[in-house]
Amino acid sequence: MSDWSFVRVERDDDVATVVIDRQEKLNALNPQVIEELGQAFESLREEEDVRGIILTGAGEKAFVAGADIGVLSEMTPTSGVEVSRQGQEVLRAIERFPKPVVAQVGGYALGGGCELALACHLRVASEKARFGLPEVGLGIIPGYGGTLRLARLVGLGRALELTLTGEMVGAERAYEMGLVNQVAPADELSDRTRELMGKITRNAPVALRLALESVYHGLDTGAEDALGHESALFGLLASTEDMKEGMSAFLEKRKPSFQGR
Ligand code: COA
Asked: Which residue ranges have their beta carbon within 6 Å of ligand 1?
């Protein structure tokens, strides 16, 4: 499907799995990995058959153990801004992706890896997963949007605890915090992630897309604007075949078959 070095896309029916595979460095994100990740998502944007995306890291040890510290160690003030902006841009594209994205976290999700998981719409963790933002111990701060997204997801107090201590938390604590949606035994992680994705992708694709659009637009704007936008999207759905199908199926007591139109 592509000639990327560190990223591959696997297909299972209507779900694509994007795998970051740089196992010898625990899938750490260097500029090439980030670029390939962005390209992989772009390649899936217009693929009508793909209704949801699972993002994961290869191997059992890590989801992604952070941005590449070798690269970061050589950064200058200007290249540092660039490194941060490149990561932010790709993670923002994932966050605003028009199809549901679920992070499947089997091991370490540290620094930029934790930030990457935060940019996904939902997160499923194995019992062995470890989350953390160790940046302050390296003399930097999270630079891929983590200072914003973690506080939004788990609240200010918990976000500051992780950000300022730099300590890792296990999957159970991450679940209690609201950082992950589900915790699964390690050997069931991919099945449980797929199961969750199935519960999402059985729904109307255009409705899923506009639900994401409304939620994320609402986070970035005032209430009046957000409510107006929600109403406009709500009304727009009346023009879709999916709405007619969903409601007809309910009334006819059958399962809907959505075409994403
Ligand atoms: N950047 C670059 N290389 C990394 C990396 C990162 N973020 N995380 C791990 N690696 C590399 C290690 O340097 C090592 O490479 P080497 O074999 O060439 O020496 C390899 O991945 C395996 O990691 P190692 O540290 O030997 O594994 P471990 O099981 O002892 O420890 C971690 C695992 C995750 C605790 C440890 O690798 C770690 O602390 N990584 C950095 C996490 C971090 O600070 N991330 C935020 C960056 S902003």
From this structure: 25-26, 28, 65-70, 108, 110-112, 134-135, 138
Tell if the pTM clears 0.85, that is, is over it: yes
Count the Cβ atoms, other than its own, within 10 Å of residue 213.
15
Pairwise CA distance, residues 121 & 154, whole Å? 14
Residue with tokens 């986070």: 219
* 205-251: CATH topology: Lyase 2-enoyl-coa Hydratase; Chain  A, domain 2 (1.10.12)
Q: For residue 162, which amino acid is it?
A: L
Q: pLDDT tens digit string along 63-82? A: 999 999 999 999 999 999 99
- What was the pLDDT predicted at 2? 77
Looking at CATH, the fold of the domain delimited by 7-201 is given as: 2-enoyl-CoA Hydratase; Chain A, domain 1 (3.90.226)
Q: What is the pLDDT of residues 176-203, one digit of tens each?
A: 999 999 999 999 999 999 999 999 999 9
Active-site residue flag, 172: no
Q: What is the domain partition of the chain in residue ranges?
A: 7-201, 205-251
Query: In this structure, are residues 30 and 73 in contact, taking their beta carbons and an 8 Å threshold?
Result: no
